[in-house]
Design a protein that fits this description.
This protein is an alpha/beta fold. The protein contains 37 helices and 17 strands. The chain folds into 7 domains: 196 residues, Rossmann fold (3-Layer(aba) Sandwich), CATH 3.40.50; 159 residues, P-loop containing nucleotide triphosphate hydrolases (Rossmann fold), CATH 3.40.50; 79 residues, no CATH class; 73 residues, Arc Repressor Mutant, subunit A (Orthogonal Bundle), CATH 1.10.10.10; 125 residues, Serine Threonine Protein Phosphatase 5, Tetratricopeptide repeat (Alpha Horseshoe); 81 residues, Serine Threonine Protein Phosphatase 5, Tetratricopeptide repeat; 101 residues, Alpha Horseshoe (Serine Threonine Protein Phosphatase 5, Tetratricopeptide repeat).
């Protein structure tokens, strides 16, 4: 057995200024990773530099040389970036010139030894990453430039070869490769042992990315940890887990500890941690952080760099993400993305899409204050148990004698501290930290600080609000009250409307509240949000003043009803602004919920008529948007609320329209009983109306119900009656709808000529009116009709036009329907792979919508998949 005494030493001397401290740390990492191979060869690799020198009197650089003796160096490793270092106070013995830096003196000493004895081997590395021009010392940078110029083979004072790198990861890779070659050469020349790549692989663990923060003491969370680890196991088919909960509840701590346990179990090879956290609470106050990433693009870039694939960061958009996924195929990686609430809604959705395509060998952990993460398990963190808080207290007092002295005498009261912090680990640790750094702050003082002004159990965010509220003025309170209604955030323009403050005043107040850590300004956006606990506290306080709460809520609701009317509705070109509704959907939904609660409809009696009227205005403005964007459940819920409110208001006109809007969703989902129920409700609301348009609308709806029951004769009667009324009234778009319905009936009877006539007449009306939604519907009808008639070219033509229009207006169910039909045409033509792609896209949408044709599309995908596989074999 080889002992340390038997090993021959290989001494590496490291020379570098302070600006490459990160790279200097990577040198230690590489040597540690290569230690098993060095042991196998019979070498003890020792890294030495000035930090291993014992303090002594004399010129500092000479003290270093006296103790580290350059003649014992086997390898000199120099690293330079934009700093050259400080003069060491010594002269070059050959030129009598003052040395410009300690690094230069160390290099020249090593170089002259090499000239005499060919030892030490000199390995120089130059960092080329960009420098912040506001902090760079140009004189220092010039000296670095001049130093490397002397490596020139023809003109340089010390000709040689150096290598460049732009990131710490790239430096680590270079150093790994170079030191590995030195060790292998030593083994061959000194021991006669040639080590194969396979042996190296077996001896040396693969160098895999590991950017985890240091492991910290972790207590409790056994059930949550079990679920998280299960989510990261091969048995769970999802991409990972989303950990959410209030601030300070321990989301990041759980994620990091889970990663370390996965490392111990060898579940993954690479561990990549990227955080968007911008603030940290310390006993001394809130400290700003410089997060590695605050956008989806930066998360992707940081992941690529950690993998040693910095080139990926230079790519754009989907190409970048696809390339990163390809790189992840080669290793079992665990991605930990921390504090994702800084991402925009669109970025969060894009991130979820990205993670859905992670290689099966990879998993991800996301931490956020928001619930979400389709395709992953979800774990919400609640407060810690008292037993776990007790363990935290024990851990903290063992670290500090003064804290221990304060707490030992009141051990029987420790649970009071747990209760006051609401079981928040961060709140508990922060309170103990305050007791540690403030000598006069005792146990009772800490409790008083936490509980002051609280009417219920406290928590960290409530504590912060209580302390900051001392400095709040009237306008601060106005803004906080308004912000408490927004979910999850508010634009500046919306806050102006709801607070009724002037632009300049609001700007000053928001900056002030942000400085007090009561309002977060979302990175990259002019949007503002409250911590969830702060929001809850303010709403509870506000609710104590019912009149003020209604006044603020009414302004909030009024803003969003007006917003919905401005960007929603059902005009031919309304779809162009539906993206604005989607971007603010959480606030629009919050408005609907608040109005419904305030309306308080019970047994056809409404408590607040104004709220009921506003709710119907909102439902009317949103109904088509909700249909287009596939928010069908939301449409049913909000329009059903509107129906009940309108009925209680005896507004039968609006009640009938809300019933119609609800009816379409169960109809398109194939739920005939529900569709018929809402049709009956509409008919009941309009029974006493003399409005012929409404009568025709009800007839068409009953025609659709009859068609679903395959009672085609009854369906045709209803459609014809509706058609006659609309022709008489001159409502051409409604005439076209009825014609299209009759066309489908004729197709069911295989009367293709009549069907085509109906569809073409409907299309002509839509083309004249510029109604692209109707055009897409009628083009699609003509396309599937041509398919039935085995007119492939014509079917393609109609359906391609339909798909183009459906995508332009963004109505998901129309897009999926046309894709399904186009897939049928491609299948008939023998173009199986394009058909399968279309069918798969249609299937994804129809699953989301729970569309009645979902089963048909599933069967089509199965059939096409089998056909494509058969062709491949």
């Amino acid at each position: 057995m080889t002992t340390n005494k038997d090993l021959k030493k290989l001494r590496l001397f490291a020379a570098s200024p302070s600006d490459v401290a990160t790279e200097r740390a990577r040198l230690e990492t590489v040597v540690g990773l290569l230690k098993p191979l060095a042991d196998h060869i019979g070498l003890s690799v020792d890294v030495v530099d000035w930090r291993k020198v014992v303090p002594d009197m004399g010129r500092p650089q000479q003290v270093i040389f006296d103790q580290l003796q350059p003649t014992t160096w086997d390898v000199f490793i120099g690293i330079l970036w934009h700093r050259f270092g400080a003069p060491p106070g010594g002269k070059d013995p050959q030129t009598q010139k003052e040395y410009l830096s300690g690094t230069e003196e160390e290099f020249k000493t090593a170089f002259r030894l090499w000239e005499q004895f060919q030892k030490p081997r000199i390995m120089m590395y130059r960092c080329t990453r960009q420098v912040d021009l506001t902090v760079v010392d140009f004189d220092q940078a010039r000296k670095v430039q001049e130093f490397f110029a002397q490596f020139d083979a023809m003109k340089g004072q010390h000709p040689g070869l150096y290598q460049s790198f732009d990131t710490a990861e790239a430096f680590e890779k270079l150093l790994w490769d170079n030191l590995l070659k030195i060790l292998l050469k030593y083994s061959e020349e000194e021991t006669g042992q040639v080590i194969s790549p396979q042996t190296v692989e077996a001896i040396v663990s693969r160098r895999n990315p590991d950017t985890l923060p240091p492991r910290a003491a972790f207590f409790g969370r056994d059930k949550e940890m079990q679920r998280v680890l299960y989510a990261l196991s091969p048995e769970e088919r999802g991409w990972g887990v989303v950990i959410d909960g209030i601030g300070g509840i321990g989301k990041t701590a759980l994620a990091v500890e889970a990663a370390y346990r996965c490392k111990e179990q060898n579940r993954f090879e690479a561990f990549i941690f990227v955080s968007a956290k911008q603030n940290r609470l310390e006993p001394s106050g809130i400290k700003a952080l410089s997060p590695a990433a605050v956008t989806l693009d930066e998360f992707v870039n940081e992941t690529a760099r950690a993998l040693g694939q910095s080139g990926i960061a230079k790519l754009d958009g989907e190409t970048k993400r696809k390339t990163l996924l390809d790189a992840l195929v080669t290793c079992r990686a665990l991605l930990i993305y921390d504090n994702l609430e800084t991402l925009t809604k669109g970025e969060q959705e894009a991130l979820a899409d990205f993670l859905r395509f992670l290689p099966q060998s990879c998993k991800a952990i996301l931490t956020s204050r928001r619930q979400g993460g389709e395709g992953a398990l979800w774990q919400r963190l609640e407060k810690l148990d008292w037993q776990d808080s007790y363990k935290i207290i024990i851990h903290e007092i063992e670290r500090d004698i003064n804290l221990k002295a304060k707490l030992q005498l009141v051990e029987t009261r420790w649970q009071e501290l747990h209760d006051a912090t609401g079981g928040s680990p961060l709140a508990l640790i922060n309170t103990l930290g305050l007791m540690r750094v403030k000598v006069t702050l005792g146990f009772d003082d800490a409790l008083s600080l936490l509980l002051r002004g609280a009417e219920s159990k406290s928590d960290l965010q409530k504590f912060i609000y209580e302390e900051a509220s001392k400095e709040l003025g009237p306008n601060d309170t106005v803004v906080l009250n308004a912000l408490s209604f927004f979910v999850p955030s508010a634009s500046f323009e919306a806050l102006i409307t709801v607070t009724e403050l002037k632009h300049t005043v609001l700007g000053v107040v928001l900056e002030r509240l942000n400085a007090l850590a009561l309002v977060n300004i979302l990175a990259g956006e002019e949007r503002y949000t409250l911590h969830p606990l702060t929001r809850t506290y303010i709403r509870e306080t506000l609710s104590a003043d019912a009149a003020n709460e209604y006044s603020v809520g009414r302004r909030f609701a009024s803003h969003w009803v007006d917003y919905a009317k401005k960007y929603g509705g059902g005009g031919n070109e309304s779809y162009k602004t539906y993206n604005r509704l989607e971007s603010e959907w959480p606030n629009l939904e919050a408005t609907a919920i608040w109005l419904w609660k305030k309306a308080s409809v019970k047994t056809n009696i409404i408590a607040n008529k104004e709220a009921g009227q506003m709710l119907n205005g909102l439902a009317n403005a949103l109904s088509q948007f909700l249909l287009y964007y596939g928010r069908w459940d939301e449409r049913v819920r909000i329009c059903a609320w509107g129906y009940e409110a309108a009925q209680a208001l005896h507004d039968l006109h609006e009640a009938g329209w809300r019933a119609t809007e609800v009816m379409w969703i169960p109809y398109m989902r194939g739920r005939q009983n529900d569709a018929t129920l809402w049709t009956d409700r509409c008919a009941e609301m309009w029974a006493g109306s003399e409005d012929k348009y409404k009568k025709a609308t009800v007839k068409r709806m009953y025609g659709l119900m009859a068609q679903d029951r395959r009672n085609y004769s009854e369906a045709e009667r209803f459609f014809q009656e509706a058609l006659a009324i609309w022709r008489d009234l001159g409502y051409k778009s409604s005439v076209a709808m009825a014609l299209n319905n009759l066309g489908y009936l004729s197709r069911y009877h295989n009367d293709y000529d009549v069907a085509e006539k109906y569809h073409l007449e409907a299309l002509e009306v839509a083309l004249k009116s510029g109604d692209k939604e109707s055009q897409s519907i009628y083009y699609s009808a003509l396309g599937i009709l041509s398919f039935d008639r085995k007119q492939s070219a014509k079917a393609n033509q109609w359906l391609e036009q339909a798909l183009s229009l459906a995508k332009e207006i963004g109505r998901l169910d129309l897009i999926a329907g046309v894709q399904h039909n186009l897939a049928l045409v491609r299948e008939a033509e023998g173009r199986l792979e394009p058909a399968l792609l279309l069918a798969q896209e249609a299937l994804a949408t129809r699953k989301q919508l729970q569309h009645e044709s979902l089963t048909a599309t599933q069967n089509l995908v199965k059939r096409l998949t089998a056909a494509v596989q058969n062709d491949a074999t």
